[in-house]
Specification:
Distance between the termini: 22 Å
Strand content: under 5%
Membrane topology: Multi-pass membrane protein
Shape: globular
Number of domains: 1
Number of strands: 0
Subcellular location: Membrane
InterPro entries: TLC-dom (IPR006634), TLCD (IPR050846)
Radius of gyration: 21 Å
Structural class: mainly alpha
Largest sheet: none
Helix content: 55-70%
Keywords: Membrane, Transmembrane, Transmembrane helix
Protein name: TLC domain-containing protein
Number of helices: 11
Amino acid sequence: LGVSFWGVIARLAHSPRAMGPGGNGSMHGASSLPWGGHEMHPYEASYDQLLAPAKWLDTITKEDGFQDMLWYLACWTVAWVALFYLITCRLRSRMAAWPASTKTHENDVYWCARNLIGIIHAVFISLLTVPTILMLYGAPDDIRFGATGHLAACVPPENRKLGLEVTIAVQAVALAGLAFTAFTVADVGISLIHGLASVDFIIHHVAFITAGLIIRSHCMLPFNAAVLLSMEASTPFLNYLLLVRHRGAGFKASVQVNGIVFILLFLIFRLLMNPYGTAVLWLHHDSAMPPTVPRWQADFLLLAVAAGTAVQFFWFPLIAKTFGAGLRDLLGFGGSRYDGEPAHEGVDSHQSSEPSGKKQSGSAAK
């Protein structure tokens, strides 16, 4: 799927504005409407009319594909849980061959399984969203802020000729958003069952489940959703570090290399692309979301996205200090006592915000 997207991107490089309605990216007249537009909603609603959550729930259930979306969400959640326990079963027979970690909690089979499934999840999400960012980066606003009422797969309406590339892109983001939200739901249940959760961990996950459901239940903000989800690109390297950094000198080189890749991806997707996406959303906050989105949901998303961006900058100095030492050691500058041990235990939870007694996996990074 990732290879297919890169092929699409190569095609778009020759005609980046072909995604716009009419093929010219015009923002005037009817083409200034999101690709879903009001025609996808059989009702007219203002922020005030949909302010109450109860009223919104009654309205959203009338959308095309709402029941299918819930069914897909349930299936994805069950699939993630099943994959977690499959990994756990495989690890039970294989962990004996691993070098033991000096940290007791890192020898727990469930803790290790959470890191491994987090890697699988992050790779899947990144393959869907990173190419989509490149595809939608130069698209007109009516594409980047498009919305549709077909909730099952976020299929653009047939009367808007967006082209195959955009149709694939927005549905890929919708799929990634559903898989991400389901993974977060599954992670909450798994962590509670196996004692891997803390109060702040639960709050963190509930916030992201809420944001994911809001965006996905309106099939909106494909560009911003892709930017947010693409932050998972750094997670596989972080999870690998968490798995092996305390398992002996044999992993020292791989820990250092993964640390460098992790910090580079952190810079690109969390400190560059994420603030850009946040700025774009705030600059267009009055028109980015369809008028059928309740005000409380719109305000929650704006604040959540801004807070998420601020958190990345809060954690970066600690991350730079930790992995900068490894970079100096790897390049042979000497004087570094880096051994894969973070300067502070908080680096375990720089994304997951979960400094509990039994350390959480970086797979909760969002």
